[in-house]
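ARCHIVE CARD
CATEGORY: sequence design from structure
SOURCE FIELD: tokenized fold
FIELD CONTENT:
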């Protein structure tokens, strides 16, 4: 009897162990399948087509690394890449700063904070195309609300979207408005994970608000800051919808970023093979940057 009970117990434990081993794979299977179908396989095809001359139809003609040699000498591509870097380096610190300040405010015990959280997060739920159209309506040269108000006050209207510097600034403002609420939620999660006892102990020791923020808050939200920095930088480098609906890349290509340049090569000039080459180069550059950030920041891990 004891042997039968022990054998049945071993079988149950074996079945349970097998379920615990297999079940997690069932949970991640849908995401794995989506990642495989929409990321890995297209990337493999992209590498193949980047070595060909292909217009999107017909049989690709293998040209080896000729497209890559052409890309390294493509001045317009590197100009659009430089504009994208400039756009990201200006926008990202502002987004992170504003998001952190908003998050710090929204975790305080203030009346109606639930309403204000929803209002601030609301722009993140709007399509980038809609955001671009809305800001075009606000900053439009002839029909914009701001120029209309300036004229009512007897001031000269400003060519917001016809001047390169002004258009670039408008794109940055629209980007901050669109993204700040989304990253605010991430910072709120990081801020709320900090034990209140740390602040109470610092307050007893005589630390002021600024000292508590610098010595407690910033070090303890380092993982969240790192995540926001990486996601924000990658998101800014992929900016397309909002820019194309707001400025169309103009004036005089002042706001034409790298994704728009790749799009034009692919769907306006029908040079799919070369567009794949530019996409692969962009992917390698961004992957390299991300890896370097992981190395430098240690993945955002807080030191003991």
């Amino acid at each position: 009897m004891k042997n039968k009970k022990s054998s049945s117990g071993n079988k149950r434990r074996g079945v349970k162990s097998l379920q615990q081993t297999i079940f997690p794979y069932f949970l991640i299977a849908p995401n794995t399948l989506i990642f495989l179908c929409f990321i890995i396989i297209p990337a493999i095809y992209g590498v193949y087509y980047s070595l060909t001359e292909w217009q999107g139809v017909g049989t690709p003609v293998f040209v080896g690394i000729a497209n890559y040699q052409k890309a390294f000498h493509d001045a317009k591509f590197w100009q659009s890449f430089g504009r994208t870097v400039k756009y990201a380096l200006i926008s990202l610190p502002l987004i992170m700063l504003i998001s952190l300040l908003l998050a710090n405010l929204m975790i305080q015990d203030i009346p109606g904070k639930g309403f204000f959280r929803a209002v601030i997060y609301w722009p993140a739920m709007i399509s980038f195309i809609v955001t671009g159209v809305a800001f075009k309506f606000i900053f439009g040269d002839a029909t914009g609300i701001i120029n209309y108000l300036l004229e009512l006050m007897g001031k000269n209207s400003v060519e917001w979207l016809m001047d390169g510097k002004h258009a670039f600034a408008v794109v940055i403002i629209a980007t901050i408005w669109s993204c700040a609420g989304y990253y605010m939620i991430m910072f709120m999660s990081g801020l709320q994970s900090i034990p209140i006892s740390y602040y109470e102990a610092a307050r007893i020791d005589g630390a002021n608000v600024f000292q508590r923020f610098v010595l407690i808050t910033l070090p303890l939200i380092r993982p969240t800051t790192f995540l926001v920095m990486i996601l924000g930088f990658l998101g800014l480098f992929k900016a397309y919808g909002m820019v194309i609906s707001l400025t169309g890349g103009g004036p005089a290509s002042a706001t034409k970023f790298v994704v728009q340049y790749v799009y034009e090569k692919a769907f306006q000039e029908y040079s799919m093979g070369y567009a794949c080459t530019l996409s692969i180069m962009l992917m390698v550059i961004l992957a390299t940057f991300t890896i370097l950030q992981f190395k430098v920041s240690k993945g955002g891990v807080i030191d003991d």
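CARD ANNOTATION: The chain has 13 helices and two strands. The CA atoms of residues 45 and 276 lie 9 Å apart.
SHELF: design records, drawer C
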